[in-house]
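re: ur question from yesterday

yeah so i grabbed the chain u mentioned. its 462 aa long if i counted rite. heres the sequnce exactly as i have it in my notes:
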Amino acid sequence: MATENQRQPSKLEKPINGKRLLFFSLPIQGHMTPMLQLADILHSKGFSVTFIHTKFNSPNPSNYPHFTFQPISDNLSEAETSGLSVFDLAYLINAKCVAPFRDCLDQLFSDSSEKRPFAGLISDPALHFTREVAKSFQLQRFVLRTSGTGAFRAFSSFPLLQEKGYLPIQDARSEEPVEELPPLRIKDLPVITTSHPEKLYRLLEGMIQETKASSGIIWNSFEELEESSLAKLRQDFQIPMFPIGPFHKHFAASSSSLLAEDHSSISWLDKQAPNSVIYVSFGSIAAIEEKDFLEVAWGLANSRHPFLWVVRPGLIRGVEWLEPLPEGFLESLDGKGHIVKWAPQLEVLAHPSVGAFWTHNGWNSTLESICEGVPMICTPCFTDQLVNARYVSHVWKVGVQLENGLSRERIEMVIKRVMEEKEGEEVRERVLHLQEKANLCVQPAGSSHESLKSLVNYISLF
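ran it thru and got these C-alpha cells back, copy pasting raw so excuse formatting
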C-alpha cells in the first residue's frame, strides 16, 4: 500500500470510559476512509480502537499510532485480487474470512492482560458474516453504512423491484420512473453488472437481513441532507439510526488515502484564478475505455477552462497511464491543464481556485463536494453512484448530470453550463446553502452533533 499522509491522533489520547470498540471495513478506499474517520471520532469520545483488517489493501498503522491494528488472513491469492470488482471482493471475504475473524475475536477475548470490556463491533454491511460471529461472542454489532440513505433504500428494495418487473433492467424501459423510489428512473437503480447475478442477490439479501438484525446503523450523512430517506428507513428497519456525518467535519482535515497523493496539484491551483478550475476525478475503482478517455481530454481542452485531472494508473482499460494522449497535448494547453495520479481531494475541493468538480459521485466525493460548496458535474459509473448523481442533479440540484455517453461536444457544453451560464450560478447558490447546513450540523446543538452524543451513550450501554 502507498504511504499515507501522517495524521494527527484525535485530541483525547487516553480513553476515559474504559471500553473498547472493534472496527472491520471492506478493504477498498471508499469504505476504508469513512471507517477510519469514524474510529477517530469515537476515539475522541473516549473509546479505545482496535481496527481489524485483511492483509489485502491494509491500512498503514504508523499513521494511526492511537489505534491497535489487528491483521487477519484473508486467504486471497494475488490472482484472485487482480481486477476484482467490489462485489466479487465482498463475496470472497464473506466466504473466506469467517474462521480467521472468529480466531481473531477468540484471541482478543482471551487476552488476560487486557481488562477493558468490548462495547461492540462496527463493521461494513457488506461483511454480513460478522454479525453471526460477533453474536457467538455476545458482542453487539453496529453497521457503518458508507453510502447515502437514498442508495441504501434502493438496495433494500431489490426484492420488491424484482417482483414489480423493474429488475433486471430492460434498456427499452430505462427512462421510466421507479414510482416506489422517486426521483429515480429505472436507469438510476444501483445495479451491478455481473456474470453471477444469483451470488449478487445472495450478498445483497445477507447484507440487508444482517443490517436489520444489527444493534444500529451509523450514517456518514446528516438529517438536513437526507431527511426524507432517513424517515422512510427508520420506518422500514425499526432499529436505531445515527446520521452523524459529514465525518471529516468532526476534526481537522487529514488523509486516510490508500493511494499516494501528489501535492503538486495544490501549488498549481495556487496560480489559478478563483472559481476557475474544473477538478476531475472518477474515484479509486472506476475504469474507462481509451476512446472515452480521449473524449474527456478534448472536452476539457475545448472548454478553455483550466483543469486539474486525476488519472490514476488503471483508470484507462488496457493502458498504463497517459500513453493515449496525443504528443504535445499538455504543452498545447499553455499551462491550463495539470494531470496527477492522485490528489489530496479535501485540500483540492477546499481551494478557492476550484469552481466545479467533475465526479463519479461516490458517496465520499459527493459529500465532500457539498461540504466545500463546489458544484458538481456528474458521471456515475455503477451501483450507488447512479443514485447519488440523481439526487445531486434532481433533488438537491447542486450539480448537472452528463448523460448518454462521453463526447467532447457534450462535455464542453456541460462545462459551460456549470462554469459560465445562469444555471451554474443557481447551482452554486444552492450548494453554498447546503454547505452552510453541513457546517452547522456538526456544531453544538446541530443534528449530527446531537446524534453523535446519542450514539456514544447508546454504545456505552453495552
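noticed a couple things. Confidence is low (pLDDT under 50) at residues 1-15. also The chain has two domains: 20-245+444-460, 264-439.
anyway ttyl
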